[in-house]
Design brief:
binds thymidine-5'-phosphate, five-stranded parallel β-sheet, about 55% helix, alpha/beta, Rossmann fold, 8 helices
């Protein structure tokens, strides 16, 4: 399937600030008169948000790696079918806070399920939809865990199952993101997540302006 609209994803370690950046980009694009759909993974449409609750609930410690990857793709399939594909078909801009690249780095490499497994599920769930542009908001594993844990203390909630993984897991994720950016430099653009929110926004816009 060809995208008539533009599909832009934000990726990065937890606590990288990608969610704030995506919100700012959406506001800017709407201010320019563009129609923008914002979604998040896992999640998006109500059914996918129910799957999100299973995936991120810290109580679900027994969730096996295979169940986990299938649920991430189940959420994604619903997001693609219900929101993303129709919006792209209408020529709109879709912004997603994470997409298949997250499954590649967290399940494929973090969990060790392998890139082939992720590619096989992508072929079923995504119906050929790939991001036109991916912004990787870059912070290291140590900063990521520190920020995520500080946030969980400041705003207690139960969506911490992934933050509870070891530092080694998060380091594998970090390495995998960088390997991906090196492999697909035309699509995946690294944005420095260690500067301030406004500086990151300027860097994001300097990249996105060429794509919309
Ligand atoms: P977030 O909404 O705070 O980014 O949290 C989502 C968590 O789920 C985050 O730790 C990354 C993880 N995740 C995966 O492991 N695989 C995936 O495919 C996606 C979309 C997210």
């Amino acid at each position: 399937m060809t995208n008539r609209g533009r599909f832009i994803t934000f990726e990065g370690m937890d606590g990288s600030g990608k969610t704030t950046q995506m919100r700012r980009l959406a506001e800017r694009l709407r201010g320019m008169g563009r129609t923008v759909i914002e979604t998040v993974e896992p999640g998006g449409p109500p059914i996918a948000m129910k799957i999100r609750r299973i995936l991120l609930d810290a109580a679900n410690q027994e969730l096996s790696p295979v169940t986990e990857v299938l649920l991430y793709f189940a959420s994604r399939a619903q997001n693609v079918d219900e929101w993303i594909a129709p919006a792209l078909g209408r020529g709109e801009i879709v912004l997603s806070d994470r997409f298949t690249d997250s499954s590649l780095v967290y399940q494929g490499f973090g969990r060790g399920l392998g890139a082939e497994t992720v590619a096989a599920l992508e072929a079923i769930a995504c119906r050929g939809i790939k991001p036109d542009l991916t912004l990787l908001v870059d912070i290291d594993a140590e900063a990521s865990l520190a920020r995520a844990r500080a946030r969980n203390v400041a705003e207690p909630h139960c969506e911490t199952r992934m933050d509870d993984q070891s530092i080694e897991f998060h380091r594998r994720v970090y390495e995998a993101y960088h390997a991906l950016a090196a492999r697909e430099p035309d699509r995946v653009k690294i944005v420095n997540g260690r500067t301030g929110i406004d500086a990151i926004e300027r860097e994001v816009w300097s990249i996105v302006a060429h794509y919309v």
